[in-house]
Amino acid sequence: MPDPCSFKRYELSVGMVDSQKSKYLEPNVAMDAQKLKPKRFFPPKVVSHSNSDAIAPPPGLCLQITSLCLSRGVQILLWGNDQVAPALRLLIVGQKRTGKSSVGNTILGKDAFNTWGGADSAVAHGESEGRQLMLVDACGWGTNENLVPKQEKLELFNALSLCEPGPHILLLVIPLLYFSHSEKAALQKRMEILTEGVWRHTMVVFTLGDRLRDFSIQDHIQTAGKDLQWLMEKCRYRYHILNNKMPQDRQQVSGLLDRAEDMLMENGGWHFSLHMYCRLEEEWSRREREMKEDTRETRWSGENRSRTGCGS
């Protein structure tokens, strides 16, 4: 099956952002590192779905774009009218005992993953709401906030390899009412392994949303504290609420998949590739070093000319 990264890139320009904080990534991982040219990334604004109660990010963070929710339209734009779209690859990650495996079962509408925990990552295929899906349920990580055990790193890399050439979307599962500072620190350590670039492919999936009761998701995010605010900013306010106790509610699943397709479009159809991001980060670091050296040389030359002029 053809991969979206092998087809022509469609750029979606929706506004201007601070070039110091934004990077536009090249899709061709086979390119020589010397030819990689960092470009500016134009982040999207959250697209509201009727069942996810999305909240708008702070002013200036994102700019509005049109909702892209037609599955067939997305397929035609990315792969052409005569092409068969590949399965949407979703990698489910998160801490142990967060309902992560149940999220995969709810999406597929069947008991595809063991919800009693397991030592290995698991793969499941299926069709849901008219989409062909490939789901990888990564082995849940622990609570150590100071370091990541070697076995956890290996399991994370193994989960990535199970959805080669890479996941289109990472579903980061977080229990809605339980995101503490220690959980933030543990999450940050694990995501750092995947590089900063993983966040533009990440959607937060909140479980236990039924416990909000009379509160809205907007109220909860605004009052939950700086740790949850940090998470929202990292994922660019791309999130969805899923109630695993109501797997028969297919509207919530359809909304999640719509949002995943929006993200795929926003990323130009590119999947996440750890190898690509590592090479890009190396290239950006090299260019930053060159710019600093050029700046120092220019300053040194200017100072020399000034001293020479003063002595004449």
Folded structure, characterized:
The protein is α/β, with parallel strands linked by helices and 312 residues long. It has one domain: 3-Layer(aba) Sandwich (Rossmann fold). It is 37% helix and 12% strand. It is built from eight helices and six strands. It has helices at residues 71-79, 100-108, 150-162, 181-193, 217-223, 226-234, 250-266, 274-311; strands spanning 88-94, 122-128, 131-137, 169-175, 202-207, 239-241. The chain has a six-stranded mixed β-sheet, sandwiched between helices. α4 links the parallel β4 and β5 (202-207). Pfam families: AIG1 (PF04548).
SSE-based structural type: alpha/beta
Q: Kindly provide the name of the CATH class.
A: Alpha Beta
Q: At CATH's second level, what is the architecture?
A: 3-Layer(aba) Sandwich
Task: Work out the strand percent.
Answer: 5-15%
Q: Percentage of helical residues?
A: 25-40%
Which stretches are poorly predicted, pLDDT < 50 over at least 5 residues? 1-70
Strand order of the largest sheet: 2-3-1-4-5-6
- Kindly state the number of beta strands: 6
**Large-scale geometry:** elongated
In short:
Belongs to the TRAFAC class TrmE-Era-EngA-EngB-Septin-like GTPase superfamily. AIG1/Toc34/Toc159-like paraseptin GTPase family. IAN subfamily. With 312 residues, the chain is α/β, with parallel strands linked by helices. It is built from eight helices and six strands.
